[in-house]
Amino acid sequence: MDPVRNPFAPGAGQRPPELAGRDRELAAFDVVLERVARGRPERSLVLTGLRGVGKTVLLGELRSMAVKRGWGAGKIEARPDAELRRPLSAALHRAIRDLAVRHRDPERVETVLGVLKAFALRANPDGTKLRERWQPGIDVPAAQGRADSGDIEIDLVELFTDVAELAQDVGTGVALLIDEMQDVQPDDISALCAACHELSQSGAPLVVVGAGLPHLPALLSASKSYSERLFRYVLIGQLDREDADHAVLAPVAREGAEISPLALDALFDASSGYPYFVQAYAKAAWDAAPADPITPEDVAMAAPEAEAELAVGFFGSRYERATPAEREYLRAMADLTAGRDEAVGTTDVAVYLGKKPSSLSPARDNLIKKGLVYSAERGRIAFTVPHFGRFLLGREE
């Protein structure tokens, strides 16, 4: 098979050739856009799931839907070592520029940009010298007395209100999309929840769409108890057999090629329906096939190559971030679950390693912060990456 025509291209956040199995989520967001634009109340949205299920891809698709409807839309990726104010300023600047194309009052747009600039400039620590101050690249004077108090919760409410009212002027809304939302710092998470709560009560046309790991709802709830009612939570999981087959069949057919039913069986067994793995194994199978159609023998021949690539780029890069003590904890989890994608008791890990649970808390907490594991429920821990336990058991130390 011609590798140049290979339709599969696994990559972080890269849209697959066929976005299969997400029709329900896309349709639900379309309803949200329409309801908010009509001034009807609607909750913000939080997507949760393991690594490799396509949350980032889905966020990008939702952003495209908002833009096509004339909304202002901005997207950011949260980082555990960075405050939200600076990236949020850049995202909302993008959203305001989207709205400015449709707005008939340039002065009104500049007023809101002035508020945004005032908000952004508070990202500079007090006492920063003028020549060292970060500038947000907004070519209007900063407003005074609006969104510039330095209290992120107060400032965010005021900023969201002004940006939402700008969108309301042109009969649309604003979508703020936040990837890796579990990495937003606690004070910023609290402020974000408070701002969403304030806007939901007023019916302002601004929607936050967050995406993060499975423990994100617990983080939001710990920040603000009402967050359980503030957001609509959508679990993004692996594809069922029909959707996984469609994710392979449709791109192959568009290239005028075929794949046998038995090869589809083999691909599903290897990938377990996880979208990133579907792409990885399908790409390798296409390249390994000497001729059309792709057969189960081609999939078997390609599997080691796909797994080697995953071991380096998908699993290995994450494993390398762990310290020796953390790797010991990870290996114990893999042994106790026999490599299955299951949660394990933290006490069981301690018993297995012959250590006190309290002595393992630092390793566990650091693994959570690094996004390698998450607390599936009280007293239990699980990998954030599908098949990670299997990777660890097959790894030569």
Outline of the structure:
Helices cover about 55% and strands about 10% of the residues.
Task: Walk me through the structure.
Pfam families: AAA_16. GO terms for molecular function: electron transfer activity; heme binding; metal ion binding. This is Cytochrome c domain-containing protein. Residues 168-357 form the Cytochrome c domain. Residues 1-20 are annotated as: Disordered. This protein is of the alpha/beta class and 397 residues long. The chain has three domains: 23-235, P-loop containing nucleotide triphosphate hydrolases (Rossmann fold), CATH 3.40.50; 243-318; 321-393, Arc Repressor Mutant, subunit A (Orthogonal Bundle). Helix content is 53%, strand content 10%. The protein is built from 16 helices and eight strands. It has helices at 23-37, 55-68, 85-100, 106-121, 152-169, 186-202, 216-223, 227-230, 241-254, 261-271, 275-288, 296-319, 324-337, 346-353, 357-369, 388-393; strands at 44-48, 72-77, 174-179, 206-212, 231-235, 344-345, 373-377, 380-383. The chain has a five-stranded parallel beta sheet with strand order 2-3-4-1-5. It has a three-stranded antiparallel beta sheet with strand order 6-8-7. Strand 3, helix 6 and strand 4 (206-212) form a beta-alpha-beta unit. The chain is globular, with a radius of gyration of 23 Å. The model has no long low-confidence stretch (mean pLDDT 92).
